[in-house]
Design brief:
The structure holds two protein chains of two kinds. By secondary structure, chain A is mostly beta strands. Chain A has no helices and eleven strands. In chain A, strand 9 and strand 10 form a beta hairpin. In chain A, 35% of the residues are buried. The chains are: A mainly beta, B mainly beta.
Chain lengths: 113, 117
Amino acid sequence: ELKVEQNPLFLSMQEGKNYTIYCNYSTTSDRLYWYRQDPGKSLESLFVLLSNGAVKQEGRLMASLDTKARLSTLHITAAVHDLSATYFCAVDILLTNAGKSTFGDGTTLTVKP
Amino acid sequence: GAVVSQHPSWVICKSGTSVKIECRSLDFQATTMFWYRQFPKQSLMLMATSNEGSKATYEQGVEKDKFLINHASLTLSTLTVTSAHPEDSSFYICSARDPASGTYEQYFGPGTRLTVT
């Protein structure tokens, strides 16, 4: 059974600081996704990581994937209040998992002034 | 990116009644759609995989007679919560994969908040 673990689950940080969210998964994956969810809203796709060493950046967020370590990171640079949200990673194993995604428990980020 | 819509965005119903939620892929055809449920401050829980033209595949522990799924066309899947009870109150989110996208990523609907009184 595929397991996806995120840490930390809760993160409170000051504006301007840097931090990293980690996503570990238990078996070989075809794809890894990062999503953002604002309170009361659905999921917004941030990044799709398809291969070992993949790095994607958008604004103050950068995601990377190490398939050998089964680890993805979401790095936050110089955090601002607008980044406050819950971030989920999700992993696909398309051939054996019927196209389903397995989600981590989410990391709730609060950025304080 | 591709767009998935849901209707209604919120619904309040009385205990014992049934509620239907629609999920539509607006600009692509989806042979497979997924239905999730999310309780407050928790992650998404996959309920079932909806397959166009065939029966849905339910996850372990999800009552298929209570959560009826119909995927009648390549752009529409419906979830009917039958004989709803207060414990069914939750945020229901559907998603669909766009087979034409190179990344095979899921596109999520905006969600439906169900409150059963």
